[in-house]
Structures are given as C-alpha cells and as structure tokens.
Amino acid sequence: MRFLKKLSKIAVLIIDDFLMSSIAAAEIQYLLEIIEQRSQTSALILTTQYPIDKWYTQISDPTLADALCDRLIHNAFKFNLKGESMRKKQKQSGSK
User: Fold this and answer.
1) C-alpha pair distances (Å), 67 with each of 31, 54, 63, 94
2) Across all residues in the chain, what is the average pLDDT?
C-alpha cells in the first residue's frame, strides 16, 4: 500500500519495455491496481516493442489478460513508430 501511495504522487508514470517478457498472475494483480488507481487521476505512458495484438500471449491468465488489456488499450492514445533503431543509427555513424 505504501508503494501504491508513492506512485499516486507521481504526475506521469512511465513503464518502459512493457511486456517484453511474460508476466505471472500475481504481478498482473499489482499492475491492475496501479492502472486502476492512475486511470482516475494521473497519466501512464507505456513503451514496448511488443505488438499490442500479441500482449495476450505474454500474460499467463486469460481473464487477467482481458482485464489488463481492456483498461490499457481502449482508452489509450497509441503511437506506432516505424523505422530504424536510433541506437543502431548512432552506432553506424560512430556517435554516442
């Protein structure tokens, strides 16, 4: 509960590399609580290289997958970026 209270004070929460590996049911429960709390008061930004239509395969419990995806996908602004990785471009040009 203390951790959720701390998160509630953050204006914009950014979760980077979302669902790049599978998530257990217990972890999804915590994530659902965070998302539910923030949906009423604060912003949440997710970044991922994993396609949205494949998120269900990364979540162990289908019911929890539905709940999570319903909360995240249907009220979201989605930006699909295309192109080469900036890290790859920087390495090729020799800059940091």
Assistant:
1) 11, 15, 6, 45
2) 83
